Amino acid sequence: MEIPLSRRPIARRSALGIAVGVPLSAALAACGSSGPSKNGAGGKGATYWYLGGQPDEGIRKNVVDAFNKAHPKSQIAGTAFQNDAFKTKIKTAIGAGKAPTIIKSWGGGTLRSYVEAGQVEDLTPWFEQHPEVKSKLFPTAFAAATVKGKIYAMPVERVQPIVLYYNKKVFDKVGVEPPQSWDDIMSLVPKFNAKGIAPFSLGGQSRWTNMMWLEFLFDRIGGPEVFQAVFDGEKNAWSNPAAIKALGMVQDLVKARGFIKGFSSITADSNADQALLYTGKAAMMLHGSWSYGIQKQDGGDFVSSGGLGFMNFPSVEGGKGDPSNTVGNPGEYLSISSKASADEKKVAKEFFAKGMLQDAEVKAWIDGGGVPIKLGTEKLLAASKDHEFLQFTYDVATKAKSFSQSWDQALSPTAAETLLDNIVKLFQLSISPKQFAANLNEVIGT
Known about the structure:
CATH topology of the largest domain: D-Maltodextrin-Binding Protein, domain 2
CATH class of the largest domain: Alpha Beta
Distance between the termini: 36 Å
Largest sheet: 7 strands, mixed
Radius of gyration: 22 Å
Strand content: 15-25%
Number of domains: 2
Number of strands: 15
Shape: globular
């Protein structure tokens, strides 16, 4: 198992924008297809481009095949693309008015750019007419599908919150308990360092791994409203006192030697950060829920022997954020091209209602160690050998008062790149919290 394509560094600039003029020759190679070949909207059926790479590609292909078999008069032509090829082609296709009927995105900034360009259909009336579709999905998944109060995408597939993992064996060795607050975190740092154990593993070279710390601290200190102001384009939103405090606190953790020595040269792609946790060289790690499967696969008997602990990020004393709040990937998202024909839109909506998250797909995600964003799967989760972690993930996603989308996916490409660059500088202590805020304020609304 490896980091999902949408979570890798190259995919972190996932707000695609509406680019025109990207050469069609650039990275268009597809890695598979399901159904007849079609080029963009305008055909008799509906077209759907999805991400390739096993095992997820197989699940997505099976979903299309099952729908086509059950609906011979409402066919979906599915094509799988590797991550980079997909991003290149979807930008070109949308800019040229030849998008597939069903447009995959990560919601947030990507979706907003599509909405502002008039490229995707408002699905609010359809969801109102089909409440049974909306009611079966995690409510927390809809925030990233919503632009100015209207729903433009259907949340699909699985949910992936960020989790605070810890090595139980290391905690037992040092004789301490998992942190219940930020003060606990800071008090644990010198205790682990004294034993030659890094308090936290971190693949800092990948940049987005550092970002997860800020996402949680902003929320725990000021609530989700702090970043929402940034997303809404409010002037100087990054200078919110809660933001400045959070930026300073993460630098306090760096100064206290809270992270593994040399963290800025460790990459998440290599899974080296996760190896530090399961080998006991680090006590804790903040990472996505997908890390569970990686540690299970690569960590020997670490997971099976009960060595891995997991929890939501602890509270900050005096903070406004609800301790149930989480951050990460609320889901994957599918929209319908506004340029598609009436027949294509009809097929796509039928696919949304009767093709996505059916029993076979739900079981496939669970068997792969994921939690589908479908409510009422507790019995299936309980039957899994990974039931404890899967139920934890399900509870975090469904009970969170707020599930904030990863910042670099919520923002525009320009703002996201500026964010990631400045996060590196913040963690390297080369800029102050106020300098960080000033730099990010310059790209608000871009």
